[in-house]
Amino acid sequence: MEGREFVKDDDGKGIWETSAHDAYVGQYPRLSELPVREPSSHHRAYMHHPRALNAPGNTAIVADVPIPEPGDNEIRISVHSVALNPIDPLYVANPQDAPGRVVGSDIAGTVEKVGKDVTQWSVGDRVAGFLQGATSVNPRPGGFAEFAILEADLAIRIPSAATFEEAATLPLCSLTAAQALFIRLGLHAPFPHTCAEAELGESPAILIYSAATSVGLLAVELARVARTASGKPYRIFATASEKHHQRLLDSGVDAVFDYRSPTWPEDVYKASGGISAALDCISEDESTMKISHTFGESGGTVAVLRQSAWHPEGHKDKVNVIYSAVWSGLGHEILYNGGTIPPSSSWRAFTVEFFKFLSAGSPTDASRFPIEPIPQRVMPGGLEAVVPDAFQLLGSGKVIERQHQGSEPWLQPISAEKLSVCYRTDDEGEIRLDTYSAPYGTWSSPITAEAITKGAISFADVIVDPITSTTYHIEARPSEEGRNTLINTKTGQELTPGKEWNVRTGVHEYGGAPAIVYNDFAFFSRFNDGRVYRVKEGREPEAVTPDSDKAHRFANFDVHPKHTHLLVSVLEDHTIDQPAAIVNSLCIINTNTKTVHPLVSGADFYASPKFSPDGTRLAWQQWFHPDMPWEGGQIHIGDIIIESDTVTVKNTVHIAGETKKISAAFPSWANNDTLIFTSDESGYINPWKYQNGKATALFPQPVEQEFGVPLWVLQFFPYAILDKAVKDGRSGLHIVDLTGVSAPQALDVPYVVINHIRSVSRETHEVVFTGEKVDEEASIIKCTIADLSSGSPTFTVLKPASVPPFSRDFVSTPQPMTFKAANGDPIHVVYYAPRTPDYSGSSIAGERPPCVLHVHGGPTGLTVQSLNWKVQYFTSRGWAWQVLDVNYGGSSGYGRDYIQRLVGNWGVVDVEDCIQAARIISSAPYNLVDPKRVVIRGGSAGGYTVLAALANAPDVTAFAAGTSSYGVSDLNPLVEHTHKFESRYLEKLVGGTSKEVPEVYKDRSPLNHADRIVAPLLVRQFLYLQFLRRVVLICGKILQGEIDRVVPKEQAELIYDGVKSRGGIIEYKLYLGEGHGWRQEKNIRDALERELQFYEGVLGLKN
Question: Where does the record place the Enoyl reductase (ER) domain (predicted)?
Fold first, then answer.
């Protein structure tokens, strides 16, 4: 239907007009007398989002009103949830002015349109705010509408982990409490403002009367935050019924008193020594009079919420009562209580600063509000339930008049809760948005490639200064051409500002551990020239190694504890830049003379050199070809001899690890006599210790969890109070007793991925790490365990993740599964279902979603279960993308035997596991995806598996399409051209050298079977090949990283030439400045958009 507006004609009758949306209105004609609204796809969302209008009478109905347009400095909000206040039913029962006004105060939703010159908001941003529309003194409508208008600087940005329902409870009541505490009573606000009208003395006592009300609960939160932020010794006292006492005490209140006790004023006086200031959250009858008797002889001020609250008889002298209306914070004229509230620019400025404070999030966790929202009672039924249920439940706003209308939980008497209404409920009463249905894979989504990548950062490492205990981190910035920078985590100060500084190393090509901080001085590898630099915060970096014309690469530094100008480092010498001629060793960097000296050599690779606390010994990891570090890593210890700045290692002892059989890694000194390390001797990576010349396991029995990861990227594993374990793709934390042999004590942690664990303080039992959740990206976390015996950790967010502006309602959470292969072996997968709050499913009966099966790299990588917005980019469009993250045979995290399944079988076991996983999940009893629309994707080693699955497998029709990113197409050239670190890895993966098993190399190279590829293929080396099957014509695009040394661009050119020779049409694009994978924001974005477009075209999802 064409939308119609409800207006009043000259006779006072209801008529229908023009384009409109639903709203709640004061009763004008009865609802049964209104014309029936006809469904229309154009206005479908409107019909499911009822709103409220004020009109003559004492109730409200649904009607249509024009959709408002934002003016200058305004934004239009698509309202998701509203919260009710006692003032809302009062305005309907006692209209202030003309009928037909939209009422309702607190709202939360998303920005749907911005007005002129609005720069701080974008469409899709999640916001909250409040309005006062029950008056015609100004033209602004209220908030109980599908769309509402907020002034741009009077909107609150909703933190990523907060819900719309939580956010809707805050604006009006929190501002009411803030005005009372910080303006009227003079508490020091945790934000700047100039409106304070009072000043409290030393150690003031604050009373919050009726602290279990909405305003009271928020006042307690604000007083607590103010006390912490200002350092003022505020003492907070409260009254509430006994059932709320413990909750208030847990919130930081010093003492709580039952307001029903006849002696409560006297009790408060005795406990406080006399109240200095008070907030009366009820402000009715004799409450303020009783409050006055809690004050000391010098008196003070009571802030009240109603003009008629003060009881003139029996009050204590020198106690003043002051009233304020929250509407003053809106800054425009308001008709209220029969009078007019004039605009106040200063109070409006206070609101702006207060809302900025709420928008900034908690200083310990920016994903949450700085104050705890009020508990919500979310009512089902949409806004049609506001009048019959919510309004009746609130009554006139007086506690004694509140009642319930039925036996349902949401209709019971309300106390210490905020009524919240969402616009849609499902058949089981669960709250959700109004939803649509459309074929899977075609859903509209606000999660765009630009939004995911714009300004995104990630944490490459966390570093703790062992002298000052200051935490630093390395931040990866795709928006700055993919550079890394070193930052003081607390202050946010960059030690390496400017695009010319890239804190990164090329050791092993994959890099890692490029920096260390010691006594405020940072030492780091600069990727641009390979040299090591020293820098102190606020100074310019200076080189401490000579210029080698990029031939020398450094990483894994450790500072000598006595001779602090000496650093031990891994050195990779590329003077002859051929894999067989590159030399790895340990060296000493003398930062005074700016020279480099050899220390330990002879092995093929080195990692993790660590001085003992007294500097007399050095521990390190080394290994030899053809082992990788997780296959035959060895731990060695040697005595350090220093004579005239000449450092040598003597009396070297091999303490753990064995070539081809046992891997030992991550050495870290617990003290001068005890070295902690990991070993997979039991079949799982467990912690061990070396003490008194003997290596022993720390656990009495092997634990079938991995307390370590394959060393693809160099990283420190310094001694920390907490150890990390991996099980089923999820990380965990454990307390491990280093003094004896005992089982690890698992801790309750909310993080599924934990990396970069660093010890901050052994005395206070603090560590820091990067932690990721299923619905949150990596943040830098401090973990404190006050009592090691109880093992109850507390977590503080030191640096939150960069969070795209999307509701967590869009997040599809991982579901780990274990399938059984045909031979009985397990196949571990992680499943993500299509999810969005806007769609309830497919519009095609019985349709199952298309699926992207993701193959991780390595091939000893591991698919983890933390939030990845690239996954949500697809699942929010109706894809089961990374719906199958297959941890095929050879993946880490499941023990050495599981990794060994791939030895000699790369291109076989991984391919079989992926094909079987796709078939199992698309068949009974699962039936989760469409078997004909499973596409396969992977990068690096995963890219090879994609090509092998489409070209080499017995059944090359298992997948509808594939995307190979910088994957291997021909094994022989890979051996010849790849880098030293992996130059002999292939020998184990396929069962020998190319001379020993030439037929295996030939048979498992997808290039040699390109004629069997029938599925459309996107190859991104970073290679994008699109095979469109038209008889024998093959079309494609190739996108390649220019400086990829891991899987060189020649691999892309080989498959390009192979397709070209068959008459195919191939496009080849080279991304300049990129290597193995993408670091630059523009390329990450382009690759993601191209992949989606490719799948949509192949499967016919878009015209």
Answer: 57-400
